[in-house]
């Protein structure tokens, strides 16, 4: 419940509107009670008296009440319609925005399906609850209390019966509450697993097809879906008890009213009119009480959804702007003169260990790359090369030591400032669903998000990456949509656009992780010739597997098991380091 | 990697344009899914009918007790009071029991239907083959399986039962009304005319709104999936603000569609409520008139008024259920569109078995084959190619020469536009999927890891493999030393998308899968791109033994692979331009000789 209350700040600006909608719900239900009163009057009055004029009058009153009731209902729904939809969208935007700024470590810990299901299914559940569940959850007890008050005017004995009926209802509700919460939580969590499983089966479709393992994936999916069914059936089982009991109790109260009322009439302490009135009232109270079961289930699912939502929102981003971000922002690219060591990329006794790992991935790396220098990192797979490249744009933070860019500890620079100083390219070239132009230019916007490079700059970058020719041949040239929702490109093409993105705008630092793995030798050769000119003025860290890439570098650092074994020129290391010779495929 | 590969424009909107008869198709799918549970649904209908009737006769019994029982009790005769009350009690208990079982049965049936619908969608998506997936995005299919399914489930478990109960009660009351007094019944039924009209108008608008909502939320989901999948790039390139703006924009359409739907519900609900109230006034007026004119009894009028109220009572819930129905059917339509998509590569109904494999692997033939993607631009002009059993063929050429396309025909990711691809003389289109996948396995540059342990991921090569076999496969490709360093060895969780494994290690896992699968024909498409040279060498040594007695086609930009090839095919612009042993091609001084020269140079 506390998690639901945390949405209050979002509701507060429109609280009065929301309150009006709840009052209107109360009003429309309450005024509806007048109709039986009026019809009762008609039967006792004009009909008994054969008075046509007053009959018409009362009928007109019923029409008036009818209009008022439906008008109140219309207004209530109209004011909640846009409002609740706005809330869902607001919550999703906030969650999405939060997730985008959450560190990679957290992202790796969570299945994307769990994140997605919180941003969609859970929020839809919450919207439904604010639109229908909550208002009626508020007014139902009001109606029952109101009914009780009216009853007490009719005959206090009936109130006792109403209270007697409420006690088992409340006990049942409490029992239901605890069990249903568990089942709802399990079901919603499993929903996230369904989402993950589907995502995997679609994104890994090539592997599944190549090995003919679709049946295996289907079997995995089946197990999850059947587990989901189990949780849903548990909810159904609880629903059945609740709906059955909650429906039964007011009916039993009716029987009790009739029996006790009859006894009262016979023994003289109640009148027939009182009994009939009490029964009629109870019949009208039945509907909201019956709906209470449904509302309760709805509220519990909403509470679970809220818990799941806040679980994600409460994750503290571990990689954030420094406290004195404003101060550091002054030393941005524009005011480079204030940098203590412009163009220097330095690893100072860097230790890096994944939180749940037993051994560090980087065990004390010291490395200084001078301005304009290109350093190639080589080493067998899994020795921490990619981790080195991830520390520079702060996708992860060092466990010990420091990484310094332009002489600043990367943790002292505002993230936007830090990341605007460098161009990066990953092993897996990720393009966004946007035009080629946008994809290339996106790395170059200034810290405040403005002024990207112009079209010439984009072409220049594409030329360097040897991507200009095929981009020109695309259906809409630079404006061709690529990425998941656009044109599908080959791995080599994607890699070259990603490389163009890294070099666009000539950043002061380049961090490239095996940037040409999917490119043929001939193209690689041409890219490297062009890269040489870029690299002359850029400080670069390049992960290399090929001698040709290593040869681009001014110096090469050989990594093994999280440490740097040797640093030197390509030719020099070929002469001195046996490990390097093996890595470069020189037969020993 | 082929540049031409799948350069079909993927629709940024819907790959499954909804055909005009989608509503019928969706209905057919629904009946199809419900058919095995006929008995269950029949029982449910009976239970709900009983429930409705029980609900309808309740007030009559109470009225009986009031009108006759209490006056009689005052006179000392309690039977007239006790009998209707006892009957009411019994009916109430019976409806309670009916409600209990009705809820359970509805839930059980709904869940059965959901499970079979989910599984059918899942299986079909797997069958749709690569061409469909090149056009679609994972986010969209995720949204079908989550958001759309959720909508259907909400309707089936909640609203469907309410609809049925409401309709049953309304039906029972309608019958009671006719029996009691047909003239008054007609007055009540007159309200049906505007009610029907309102329903039809609202229904039309609602269908449009719900379709809009489903399309809009799918776009939002696609955007979220894409962002979460590429979070490293998102943060590095500071895409956060752009993405924030974009989700606001995409959500605006969802918000507007949802609000439009809610506003429509508002009009609909208010309209039905008004019609109900006006009916009440009409019954009061006409009934009162008749009573005054001595054409109707007062008790009858009272009963009518009570029944009219009850009759229109469930309408609120019905309106709600109606909206849910439209939402669910819009969702079902989207799902139907995927399930109705025709796979481009179809498993034969009466497959030809592949002949028993001989010691030397399998013979592969491309017989007068041509291929173009959907756009009709030929990627591979007509060609013939025979790869004898046991031969290792290296396929080289520039990016975009059509190498990947050629092996996709061999693995039947696509069928040729013309001609046949034969394996040991059998057209691939006649081979059962199981046989084909046992015979041919492909490893690509993209080494996707599924959730689970490293051992689980290797075992994808052969799900029945023993732990020892998994270990041997890892040993063969040189993966074991890395695994030994992991916290839980083979049981280490690979984490989301294998984030905890380096890309080279992931590629080794892919190789281990292929080794474990032990196919007759092995296809490697740039499978060593992410490996460092020592690892690549180890894989190649392992390959040299494994490829003994197997047919293999290897695409590699790194020509080191050629060292183990018996034959080199050079492709250019979709054509095979050179074809000979590596030594002969180097000697002849053609394209391959040039490529090889450049390669040798790059290694120095």
From TrEMBL, chain A:
PROSITE patterns, per database record: ABC_TM1F, ABC_TRANSPORTER_1, ABC_TRANSPORTER_2
Gene3D superfamilies named among the record's database cross-references: ABC transporter type 1, transmembrane domain, P-loop containing nucleotide triphosphate hydrolases
Keywords: ATP-binding, Cell inner membrane, Cell membrane, Membrane, Nucleotide-binding, Transmembrane, Transmembrane helix, Transport
Domain ABC transporter, residue spans: 345-586
GO terms, molecular function: ABC-type transporter activity; ATP binding; ATP hydrolysis activity; ATPase-coupled lipid transmembrane transporter activity
Residues passing through the membrane, by range: 15-35, 55-75, 129-151, 157-176, 238-260, 266-285, 292-310
Pfam families: ABC_membrane, ABC_tran
Record has rRNA processing as a keyword: no
Bilayer topology term: Multi-pass membrane protein
GO cellular component, one term: plasma membrane
Chain ranges of the ABC transmembrane type-1 domain: 19-301
Chief subcellular location: membrane
Domain of life: Bacteria
Subcellular location: Cell inner membrane
Similarity-based family: Belongs to the ABC transporter superfamily. Siderophore-Fe(3+) uptake transporter (SIUT) (TC 3.A.1.21) family.
Protein name: Putative ABC transporter ATP-binding protein
UniProtKB/TrEMBL annotation, chain B:
GO cellular component terms, semicolon-separated: plasma membrane
Main location: membrane
Segments forming domain ABC transporter: 364-598
Lineage top rank: taxon: Bacteria
Region spans: Disordered: 1-20
UniProt xrefs under InterPro entries: AAA+_ATPase, ABC1_TM_dom, ABC1_TM_sf, ABC_transporter-like_ATP-bd, ABC_transporter-like_CS, P-loop_NTPase, Type_1_exporter
UniProt keyword Nucleotide-binding, yes or no: yes
Family from the record: Belongs to the ABC transporter superfamily. Lipid exporter (TC 3.A.1.106) family.
PANTHER family named among the record's database cross-references: ATP-BINDING CASSETTE SUB-FAMILY B MEMBER 10, MITOCHONDRIAL (PTHR43394:SF1), ATP-DEPENDENT PERMEASE MDL1, MITOCHONDRIAL (PTHR43394)
Protein name per UniProt: Putative ABC transporter
Organism expressing this protein natively: Brevibacterium yomogidense
Phylogenetic lineage: Bacteria, Bacillati, Actinomycetota, Actinomycetes, Micrococcales
């Amino acid at each position: 419940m506390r998690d639901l209350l945390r949405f209050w700040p979002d509701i507060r600006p429109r609280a009065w509107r929301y309150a009006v909608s709840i009052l209107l719900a109360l009003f429309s239900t309450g005024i509806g009670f007048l109709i039986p009163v009026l019809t009762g009057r008609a039967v006792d009055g004009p009909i008994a008296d054969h008075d046509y004029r007053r009959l018409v009058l009362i009928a007109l009153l019923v029409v008036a009440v009818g209009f008022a009731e439906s008008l109140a209902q219309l207004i209530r729904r109209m004011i909640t319609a846009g409002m609740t939809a706005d809330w869902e969208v607001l919550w999703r935007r906030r969650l999405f925005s939060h997730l985008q700024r959450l560190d990679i470590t957290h992202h790796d810990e969570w299945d994307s399906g769990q994140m997605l299901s919180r941003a969609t299914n859970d929020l839809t559940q919450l919207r439904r609850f604010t639109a229908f569940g909550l208002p009626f959850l508020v007014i139902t007890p009001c109606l029952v209390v109101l009914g009780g008050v009216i009853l007490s005017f009719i005959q206090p004995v009936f109130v006792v019966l109403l209270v007697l009926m409420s006690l088992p209802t409340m006990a049942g509700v409490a029992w239901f509450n605890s069990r249903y919460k568990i089942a709802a939580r399990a079901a919603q969590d499993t929903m996230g697993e369904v989402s993950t499983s589907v995502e995997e089966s679609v994104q890994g479709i090539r592997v599944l097809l190549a090995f003919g393992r679709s049946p295996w994936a289907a079997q995995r999916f089946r197990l999850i879906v059947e587990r989901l069914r189990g949780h849903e059936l548990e909810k159904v089982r609880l629903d059945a008890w609740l709906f059955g009991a909650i429906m039964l109790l007011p009916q039993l109260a009716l029987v009790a009213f009739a029996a006790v009322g009859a006894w009262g009439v016979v023994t003289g302490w109640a009148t027939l009119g009182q009994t009939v009135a009490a029964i009629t009232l109870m019949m009208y109270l039945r509907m909201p009480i019956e709906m209470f079961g449904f509302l309760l289930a709805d509220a519990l699912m909403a509470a679970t959804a809220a818990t799941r939502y806040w679980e994600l929102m409460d994750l503290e981003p571990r990689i954030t702007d420094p406290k004195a971000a404003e101060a550091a922002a002054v030393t941005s690219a524009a005011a480079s003169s204030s940098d203590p060591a412009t163009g220097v990329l330095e690893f100072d006794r860097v230790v890096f260990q994944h939180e749940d790992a037993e051994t560090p991935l980087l065990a004390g790396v010291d490395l200084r790359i001078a301005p304009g220098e290109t350093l190639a990192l080589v080493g067998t797979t899994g020795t921490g090369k990619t981790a080195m490249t991830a520390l520079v744009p702060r996708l992860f933070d060092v466990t010990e030591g420091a990484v310094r860019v332009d002489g600043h500890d990367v943790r002292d620079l505002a993230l936007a400032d830090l990341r605007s100083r460098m161009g990066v390219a990953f092993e897996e070239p990720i393009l966004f669903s946007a035009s080629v132009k946008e994809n290339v230019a996106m790395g170059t916007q200034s810290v405040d998000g403005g002024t990207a490079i112009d079209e010439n700059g984009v072409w220049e970058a594409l030329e360097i990456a040897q991507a200009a020719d095929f981009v020109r041949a695309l259906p809409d040239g630079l404006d061709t949509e690529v990425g998941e929702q656009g044109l599908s490109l080959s791995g080599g093409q994607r890699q070259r656009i990603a490389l163009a993105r890294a070099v666009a705008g000539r950043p002061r630092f380049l961090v490239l992780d095996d940037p040409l793995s999917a490119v043929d030798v001939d193209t690689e050769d041409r890219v490297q010739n062009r890269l040489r000119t870029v690299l002359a003025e850029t400080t670069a860290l390049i992960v290399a597997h090929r001698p040709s890439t290593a040869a681009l570098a001014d110096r090469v650092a050989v990594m093994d098991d999280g440490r740097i074994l040797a640093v030197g020129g390509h030719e020099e290391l070929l002469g001195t380091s046996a490990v390097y010779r093996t890595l470069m495929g020189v037969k020993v | 990697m082929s540049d031409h590969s799948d350069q079909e424009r993927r629709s940024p909107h819907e790959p499954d344009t909804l055909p005009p008869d989608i509503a019928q198709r969706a209905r057919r799918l629904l009946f199809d899914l419900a058919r095995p549970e006929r008995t269950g649904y029949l029982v449910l209908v009976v239970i709900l009918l009983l429930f409705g009737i029980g609900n309808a006769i309740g007030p009559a019994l109470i009225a009986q007790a009031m009108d006759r029982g209490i006056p009689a009790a005052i006179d000392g005769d309690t039977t007239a009071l006790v009998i209707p009350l006892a009957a009411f009690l019994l009916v109430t208990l019976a409806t309670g029991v009916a409600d209990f079982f009705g809820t359970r049965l509805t839930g059980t049936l709904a869940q059965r239907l959901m499970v079979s619908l989910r599984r059918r969608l899942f299986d079909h998506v797997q069958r749709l083959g690569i061409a469909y997936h090149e056009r679609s995005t994972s986010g969209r299919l995720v949204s079908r399986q989550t958001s759309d399914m959720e909508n259907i489930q909400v309707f089936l478990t909640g609203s469907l039962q309410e609809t049925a109960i409401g309709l049953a009660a309304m039906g029972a009351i309608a019958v009671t009304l006719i029996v009691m007094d047909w003239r008054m019944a007609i007055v009540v039924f007159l309200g049906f005319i505007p009610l029907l009209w309102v329903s039809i108008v609202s229904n039309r608008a609602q269908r449009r709104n719900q379709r809009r909502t489903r399309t809009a939320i799918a776009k939002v989901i696609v955007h979220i999936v894409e962002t979460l999948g590429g979070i490293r790039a998102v943060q590095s390139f500071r895409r956060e603000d752009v993405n924030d703006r974009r989700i606001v924009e995409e959500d605006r359409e969802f918000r507007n569609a949802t609000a439009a739907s809610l506003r429509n519900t508002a009009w609909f609900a208010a309209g039905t409520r008004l019609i109900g109230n006006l009916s009440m006034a009409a019954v009061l007026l006409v009934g009162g008139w008749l009573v005054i004119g001595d054409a109707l009894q007062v008790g009858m009028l009272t009963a009518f008024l009570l029944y009219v109220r009850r009759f229109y009572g469930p309408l609120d819930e019905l309106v709600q259920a109606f909206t849910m129905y439209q939402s669910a059917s819009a969702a079902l339509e989207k799902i139907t569109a995927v399930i109705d998509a025709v796979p481009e590569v179809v498993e034969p109904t009466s497959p030809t078995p592949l002949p028993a494999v001989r010691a030397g692997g399998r013979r592969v033939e491309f017989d007068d084959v041509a291929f173009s993607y959907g756009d009709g631009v030929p990627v591979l002009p007509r060609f013939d190619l025979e790869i004898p059993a046991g031969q290792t063929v290296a396929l080289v050429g520039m990016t975009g020469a059509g190498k990947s396309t050629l092996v996709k025909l061999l693995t039947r990711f696509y069928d040729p536009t013309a001609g046949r691809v034969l394996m040991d003389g059998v057209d691939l289109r006649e081979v059962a999927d199981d046989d084909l996948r046992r015979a041919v396995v492909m490893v690509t540059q993209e080494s996707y890891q599924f959730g689970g342990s490293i051992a689980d991921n290797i075992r994808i090569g052969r799900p029945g493999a023993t732990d020892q076999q998994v270990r041997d496969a890892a040993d063969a490709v040189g993966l074991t030393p890395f695994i030994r360093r992991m916290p839980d060895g083979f049981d280490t969780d690979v984490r989301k998308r294998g984030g905890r494994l380096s890309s080279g290690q992931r590629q080794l896992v892919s190789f281990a899968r292929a080794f474990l699968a032990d196919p007759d024909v092995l296809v490697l498409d740039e499978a060593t791109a992410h490996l460092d040279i020592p690892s690549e060498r180890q894989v190649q040594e392992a390959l040299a033994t494994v490829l003994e007695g197997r047919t293999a086609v290897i695409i590699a930009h790194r020509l080191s692979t050629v060292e183990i090839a018996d034959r080199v095919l050079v492709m250019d612009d979709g054509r095979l331009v050179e074809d000979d042993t590596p030594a002969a091609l180097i000697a002849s001084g053609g394209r391959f000789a040039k490529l090889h020269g450049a390669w040798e140079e790059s290694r120095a």
